[in-house]
Amino acid sequence: MRQRAAVAVGGAFVLVSALSACSANTGGEPQVDTGRQATGVIATDPRDSAGPAPEVAGARRGGTFTILRETPISHLDPQRTYSFAGLMTVPLIARTLTTWKDDGEGNLRLVGDLAETPGRDVDDDCKVWEFRVRDGVRFEDGRPVTAREIGYGIARSFDPDLAGGPTYLQEWLVDTPQYDTAWDFQANRTSLPPGLTTPDDRTLRFEFARPRCDLPFAVSLPTTAPLPSDRDTGVDLGNAPFSSGPYKVTRYRAGVEIVMERNEHWDATTDPVRHQYPDRFVWSFGPTPDAAANRVIADNGADQSALSWDYVPASLIARVAGDAGLRARTILSPTPSANHLVINNARVTDLRVRQALNHAIDREGLVKVLGGRHVAVPMTTLMPPATIGHRTYDAYPAGPDGDPDKARELLGGQRPELVLGAADSSLEQQVATQLKGNLERAGFTITIRNIPDDAKLDEIKKSGNPWDLYLGSWAADWPSGASILPVLYDGRTIRAQGNSNHAYFNDPAINAEFDRILTLPPTEQSRQWAELDERIMEEHAPVVPLYVDVAYLVHGAKAGGIFVSSVFGSPALVDAHVKP
Amino acid sequence: MSLSPAAGPVPAAIGSGGTAGPPRDRRGAGHSPGRLAWLRLRADRTALASGAALVLFLLVALAAPLIELTYGIGPRDQFQDRLDGFGLPLGRAGGVSGEHFFGLEPRLGRDIFIRLVYGLRTSLFVALAAAVLTSVIGVVLGTLAGYLGGWLDAVVTWITDLTLALPFLVVALVLPPMLTLRFYGQRDTVPAAFGVGVLIVIFAVFGWTGTARLIRGQVIALREREFVAAARASGAGPWHMLFRELLPNLRAPILVSFSLTVPQFVTGEAALSFIGVGLTEETPSFGRMIYQSLEYLQTDPAFVLFPGVVIFALVLAVNLFGDALRDALDPKSAG
Which residues form the Solute-binding protein family domain (chain A) (predicted)? Predict the structure, then answer.
């Protein structure tokens, strides 16, 4: 009996699986809008920064908007927020000095948020900046937001207990990366850090030792969220943030759920970008990307007005993209997250080898390994196309499938033995296998060495790490070359560990260019960064640009107003609404 | 005085009490227990079918390079031009064709058939080698502990308990990277055989306790039997006692425990690869394939089907054969 049952179970398994496999796949190319260029300006006209934000077509008030995500947002303390999920949520509960007007298609305009305009460069040398605080913005208890509360917010970001957030303002104000020792917040709770002053209740003044032309961008990060000092609960603020935005946190269950409901003291006329359509937002944590996508596709009950925060998993993409009925419920958009095969320039010192690496990679095959054009699009530049002023070029044209012959020619008969360090995650192992195949085809000998997934980033950030090649990615904090090229390729910043310059690239001429461009006004910088991008690749080839991530999202039939942020590549919630 | 049950011919009636036993041998001649077991096994259809399947699997595994030669495709060859824009195989049932018998893997576009053949080789080699090692360690320690008793028994029992208390997963997670670093540094090529070897050692270190306990119990039971006492009274040395008197009577439990550990290690290897600690991506392995295929249940079910069915058939065959072997060797225990 036992055997017959086993045979029956086996037979049924075979039958079910075989039946479901019975349609032929004939291909068909998915389309992604990849040619778009980011345009971005800093809005100097105060009218651009004036509220209210234009109504979203078809939006109405009411309903509960749910967001499904596998991993929780660690906390919602604005000064400590740096994850994409956090950066997209904090705008609902906190306002910042400046913010981005974004149409989700790469057209960006930096406008004043708490400030009336995106800042005034007082002496036209980027060293002294003034922001005039908007009238009529209130906290959730009705108190007005003044320059003092904004200053206090920036001051508390110096607290080493509240680490984790962006550190631009802190480092710029005291002009050293060790900002928490240069100015001790805990000993000076009633004062402001050096360089930051509030001449009156409606003026905030920054004074820097060096030109900081990117300040209007930097203050769009939630470091500048205001907080009255009597409401500062220290490390506990993340569980119960004090709101200045259109929503306030009414329930916080760590790792399970965050519920945000309307803040009645928020005034739409003071806000250039946000809306207050749904009655509440609910973050629901736990379902895997697979489960969340399937739930949202099934479109039942509360999931009808839900968004699956994580991108559609690569294995499900063919199904979602192939279903015409889902087209209206999906969003496909390239993101500013750029991925490179980083070459350890401290080890691979021969330019011709680095150039050969650039010729050898089959980007089209790599995109297939990643899951197709709904996951990644090939890239040949250092900066992603979503950067303001980006220009497409290909310094080492190798066609979509790579040019092994050209690579061999550059190698001139030598057979470099390189070690590729790869995280031991399933996906990165496959990508590494693919790259090894590409490179060995072109005359390299590649050894793949595994690095534990959770330790990989720390390991490659150590100068003197033992690998020649590794995969690296970079998502800038604002779409300007200033937050990409000097951060990743300024050789003077290389230290023992914690390097963002994973390529350990150091060239005095390029370093001097960084210094020169950084002192230009932001509007003049963008073109120069694009030129420098091309120059670095042509003269030095410090990395192999591979691809930019593509956001592919699915949401319920009643969820509306979602677009992919052109700045962070994650779903923006400011226009979200529940359709009737 | 009783004879050792394995010492010589015994009347057939003694051994054939079980339901799975063969028809009574009409010629009436006495058979050795080994011959009796063989007769029972031969009459058991499940045993024959699963045995034949096992032989087939073994042959395929052994002949993998030959199959590669005739098939013309290696386990690392990629056919990405036969994938669509999503990285899924073109054509019917995951790209099944005359050229690719079981279709192609999504993403990397490697041939599933030849990877299964090599995966079978890896799986069977790991499982058989680990099972042999486990049995040897288990039998040696179990027999010594059971027969000699005293402080040796105490020590072996203590080590057994200690091993049972060690967390398998934690060791399996931590040990391979440490050993790799120790032997190959951070930049040297790590041969695939090293990963396989480490896996076998881990399985052996954790797997021997069951066999050892079983054998120790059996030996203690046998130790008090008359034929052992007789042999001892006749002045037999420990060597003779162990190899002529005890071990022949332990053949059945040893074989059975061996046959049950093999499928356990096949699935064990798959499970470890499943959680990402088994073998590396470059070594074809069932576990890794099944792990990667699971996400494709909705979009490329054929990729789940082929490795799934093969490992299912392999484990089923080994298990059924193990059952049949036990029934044949020890009819009284047949269920």
Answer: 110-491
